[in-house]
Design goal:
Elements: E1 10-11, E2 14-18, H1 31-49, E3 57-62, H2 68-81, E4 85-91, H3 94-99, E5 110-114, E6 123-130, E7 133-134, H4 137-148, H5 162-177, H6 202-209
Parallel strand pairs: 3-4, 3-5
Antiparallel strand pairs: 1-2, 2-6, 5-6, 6-7
Helix pairs in contact: 1-2, 1-4, 5-6
Amino acid sequence: MMRSDWLKLKSGSDIRGEAIEHDGISVQMTDELAETVSYVFAQFLAGKLGKTPAELTIAVGRDSRLSGPRLAAAAMRGLTNADCDVLDCGLCTTPAMFMTTVNPETHCDGAIMVTASHLPWTRNGLKFVTRQGGLTGAEIEQILKQAQQTHVTPRLVKQIDFLSLYSEQLKAMVRKGLDTDVALPLLGLHVVVDAGNGAGGFYEKLLRELGADTEGSQFLEPDGRF
């Protein structure tokens, strides 16, 4: 579904649409929509309460629909990307999600319930809650319009093979230090590496790729027992 069509999913004071592809009908409640709208909800709520999103705690719950786990996960990504703390309530009811904002143990600033109420199982939606109750239709329209223009900045743990980048930097430093641009500046040099089964085994490969003879090197593979 195109962002320009998101406003069509406004259903009174909720957002609802097809959440499972079936009978040639495509998904309207996409991960992108749930993540972006939740991100904007966090900003909306922060402005309403005079706080920053980082000061908010927002609960997320869902009903038993098959699309619930997917949309709840996307909503939580949006909230955490906005810097909110999130309470994952898992399978829950709409009245219970209202209570997360007044229960003294949770005392959430707001909540999102992933549900489409009485609608067929293929549909799903997002219901937004504050301590004052649900949002108005006008507020939902405001959030959807803002979401259409918003691109979420992800806060992610990204895996990177930094040792490979580091190795290339070290090779460049060696060549610069030797004032040469030849591929194998250490040709003829014999270096034995004992890495002690720690993280330093990559030095053997680095030296070998620079032309050094590393025969006799040992304990190169990482082993947590050393």
